[in-house]
């Protein structure tokens, strides 16, 4: 009965009954099942119940379809992952923003593949949330950092999040492909005699090169602590950055 229901669901559509939005939506559905790397036009045609030529009418090659999917992913990401940093509570709000970014991408491999891996050099991705990032950096200036320090702090946080997510995603891809170890940590083995400290610590679940929650939180705390120290030093030196100094930069 299940096979019959599936067959009825996948009956061929009438010619001209599909549009670009249907195709993109179906591509996301199929990518959730097979992944971005295994997504193909013939598979998508079967998933949608149309001939592959109906897809090529709108998207001449897979790369065109992926571009459209990336644009939609960027809009979706911008909708629910807008950066927010409050000057009065900068440490907690910046940390919360970092954790939200990471949870968003780790919770959606498709978003990670399209936004962080595939569109890493995309001009559209570079412009994502520019005004929101401007506001976050300005809040860090109001909290007591210089414009340069605020920019570097936000940049370091963003880089830490993206690097952590991409390393985890690449490990998942390697393991799924059954092509050996997922990452360097899977192939490392420390001899207790020659490297007793490393052997003892990694035996407790710590990772040297992998990206787990412990490594992420430690790196995030280092960034926050460094920013707090700079704010303290600026306060002692009498440097009090303002909103205007951030705009002038």
Account of the protein in words:
It comes from Mycolicibacterium duvalii. With 249 residues, this protein is mainly α. The protein folds into two domains: 11-60, Arc Repressor Mutant, subunit A; 82-178 and 190-248, Tetracycline Repressor, domain 2 (Orthogonal Bundle), CATH 1.10.357.10. The chain is built from 14 helices and no strands. It has helices spanning 2-9, 20-34, 41-48, 52-56, 62-80, 90-106, 109-118, 123-126, 130-143, 147-176, 184-187, 196-203, 213-236, 243-248. α9 (130-143) packs across α10 (147-176).
> What is the number of beta strands?
0
User: Quick one: overall form?
Assistant: flat
So what's the CATH class of the largest domain? Mainly Alpha
Which architecture of the largest domain does the CATH hierarchy give at level 2? Orthogonal Bundle
Name of the CATH homologous superfamily of the largest domain: Tetracycline Repressor, domain 2
> Can you tell me the CATH topology of the largest domain?
Tetracycline Repressor, domain 2
Are there runs of 5+ residues with pLDDT below 50, and where? 1-10, 243-249
| Secondary-structure element series | HHHHHHHHHHHHHH
Overall residue-averaged pLDDT value: 81
Count of the domains: 2
GO molecular function, one term: transcription cis-regulatory region binding
Keywords: DNA-binding, Transcription, Transcription regulation
Organism: Mycolicibacterium duvalii
InterPro entries: DNA-bd_HTH_TetR-type_CS, Homeodomain-like_sf, HTH-type_TetR-like_transc_reg, HTH_TetR, Repressor_TetR_C, Tet_transcr_reg_TetR-rel_C_sf
């Amino acid at each position: 009965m299940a096979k019959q229901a599936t067959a009825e669901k996948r009956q061929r559509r009438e010619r001209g009954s599909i549009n670009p939005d249907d195709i993109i939506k179906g591509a996301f559905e199929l990518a959730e099942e097979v992944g971005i790397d295994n997504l193909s036009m013939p598979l998508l045609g079967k998933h949608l119940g149309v001939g592959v030529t109906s897809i090529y009418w709108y998207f001449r090659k897979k790369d065109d379809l992926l571009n459209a999917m990336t644009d939609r992913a960027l809009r979706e990401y911008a909708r629910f992952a807008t950066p927010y940093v409050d000057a009065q509570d900068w440490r907690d709000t910046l940390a919360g923003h970092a954790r939200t970014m990471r949870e968003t991408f780790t919770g959606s491999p498709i978003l990670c593949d399209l936004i962080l891996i595939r569109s890493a050099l995309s001009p559209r991705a570079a412009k994502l949330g520019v005004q929101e990032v401007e506001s976050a950096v300005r809040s860090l200036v109001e909290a007591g950092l210089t414009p340069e320090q605020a920019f570097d702090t936000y940049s370091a946080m963003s880089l830490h999040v993206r690097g952590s997510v991409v390393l985890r995603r690449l490990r998942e891809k390697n393991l799924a492909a059954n092509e050996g170890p997922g990452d360097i940590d899977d192939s490392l083995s420390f001899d207790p005699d020659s490297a007793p400290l490393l052997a003892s610590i990694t035996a407790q679940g710590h990772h040297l090169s992998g990206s787990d929650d412990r490594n992420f939180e430690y790196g995030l705390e280092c960034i926050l602590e460094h920013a707090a120290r700079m704010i303290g030093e600026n306060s002692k030196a009498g440097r009090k950055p303002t909103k205007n100094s951030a705009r002038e930069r």
